[in-house]
Amino acid sequence: MEKFQLSILFKIIGIGSASGLVYHEDKLYIISDNSSFLYEYTISNKNLNKIALVENPQETIIKKDKPDFESISFLGNKLYILGSGSTNNRNKVVKYNPTSKKINDKDFSIIFQDIKTQLDIKDEELNIEGLIQHKNIIYLFQRGNGANSKNGIIYSNEDIENRIFKFVPFDLPKIKNVSATFTDAILIEDKIYFLAAAEDTTSTYDDGEVLGSIIGTIDLKTMKILNSIQISDTHKFEGLTLYKKTATQIELLLCEDTDTEDLETTIYTLAIRN
Q1: Torsion of CA 194, 198, 199, 201, to 10 degrees
Q2: Residues contacting residue 113 through CB under 8 Å, at least 6 positions apart
Q3: Whole-Å CA distances, 53 to 35, 57, 126, 230, 255
Q4: Most buried of 5, 187, 212, 228 (most Cβ within 10 A)?
Q5: Those residues with Cβ within 8 angstroms of residue 114's Cβ, 6 or more apart along the chain or in another chain
Q6: Which residues pair with 146 in a beta bridge?
């Protein structure tokens, strides 16, 4: 992972504070942590479509009211969008079918409460930033940037209704003496590719100075870090998705949360030599 190239692919006007993305069939599906829309961007014709995820949707929602959608994944024919769980109004999971355009939502607060109870995570410490679903198991990526720094992967047994959760802690590399913490993750074959950012704050609610981002890989079976590398000292990358893969190179798409109200999102490519 020593050889990588980070570059700007394009910019999208009309989306701010991008927090996650999925690439599928010439389309980018993007979520924002201060919006209640799902954004569907067709790359070939540069068309941007806004999909309301709730009644009376809004953009640039004030912090205390936002649903804080931080995680998005694609499974089967549906997109799953999950709030961070960091406050009471950030507990919604939304399912969207791009073919039928059907939307369903569910209150995830009971599951989040079980996670906090079973794993001894305080209310103010829960901060889910990534979601992977694989073989009926969900993997939630807890960003441990709070005071107790509980950074790691939460996963369940296959029967989530019984809600038996386990936690694997991860101490990630430091940037300027601040530990990086998870901001997103995807699964490619048997490897987890994760993003993590270092931010000078001990709060899951308040933003701090951005110190940079890293990317790394984790073996899904052993839950051990295989490698990692710092890719920026100025960006807080919060979303990644697989774009292209060859025998010698993998290419990912990244988005960043600029923590501003500007409705402009830059999409980056990150090419990594195998």
Answers
A1: 100
A2: none
A3: 9, 7, 23, 34, 20
A4: 212
A5: 163, 165
A6: none
